[in-house]
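User: Hi! I'm working on a homework problem where we have to compare a predicted structure to a textbook description. Could you give me the structure for the chain below?
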Amino acid sequence: MNPSERLRVVVTGATGNVGTSVVRALVRERRIGSVLGLSRRRPGLDLERTEWAEVDLSLEGDEPRLAQYLADADAVVHLAWRFGPTHDPVTTWATNVLGTVRVLDAVAAARVPVLVCASSVGAYSPGPGDGVPVSESWPTHGWPGAAYTREKAYVERLLDVFERDHAQTRVVRMRPAFLFKEESASEQRRIFAGRWVPGQLLRPDLLPLLPELPGLRFQTLHTDDAADAYVRALVRDVRGAFNLAAEPVVDGKVLGALFGARPVRVPVPAVRGALSAAWRLRVAPAEPGLLDAVLRLPVMSTDRARRELGWAPARSSVEALEAFLRGVRAGGGDATEPLAGRRFG
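Assistant: Happy to help. Predicted structure tokens:
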């Protein structure tokens, strides 16, 4: 990529947790001339050198419009993803898998030179179990018991075929850990805990004891730090997958210190049974298979991103979680429909 070029970048899913951070990071990058943010609903954001357009990737009828938007793009950042309804996996499949197929077809037709696609730690097969970090070569077959991990793994296969058939497009896959920021907190509370769980309950003085699941160990990252990696991958001549995560790895002790609470061991079957019952009763939106997937996630090595992108997170994993908790308590949000701030409901 010529350093003197002023690039036109199209971002799908531009109004979500990752999308809003990526768009803001792009407009701060001097090599980016303009950004077109695509989403199902036009946001109330007014950002420099940024335009907005509405498109629904789950609809066949929106394919001509998508092709029009990508026709003159120098790069596409594909972030669009739907987390629910978890009781209707056909709906999430239509956006997450079939929507990705439509994006890839449009990128190929327009011969877009660069595609940066959001994958996830959730695409990985279960980890080795010893806590040893895995590289980007670890298998990406996901966990079959959750729609999210199945769909992320399927998208990896779609990218395999696309790379094979369209070598003229430089493809980058970003595999971040769980991404948090203050502005996404209300949305993430609604997605994973439910609309009716008040955020004010997540306070240290109300949680003297914290349930600790055996084997629970996961990585997090502030969304803005992930966005920085996306932009670096877009403007540098790199290909392939990049793991993204901050230190330290989060476990029961880290969470206990974060909440000022004493961790108490709770059997996994009991937690899974309670979650399963709540999900069947439609009280909790997160499907029980997602818990099984989280307990099997590998710890990722971020050596390649640090080495080839010159990237390092500016915030620790604990700082990312602290930002999320501040947002949950305050009803943090942003001027987009997905990130609308609410403390309750």
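For your comparison, note the following. The longest strand covers residues 32-39. The two ends are 46 Å apart (CA to CA). Good luck with the assignment!
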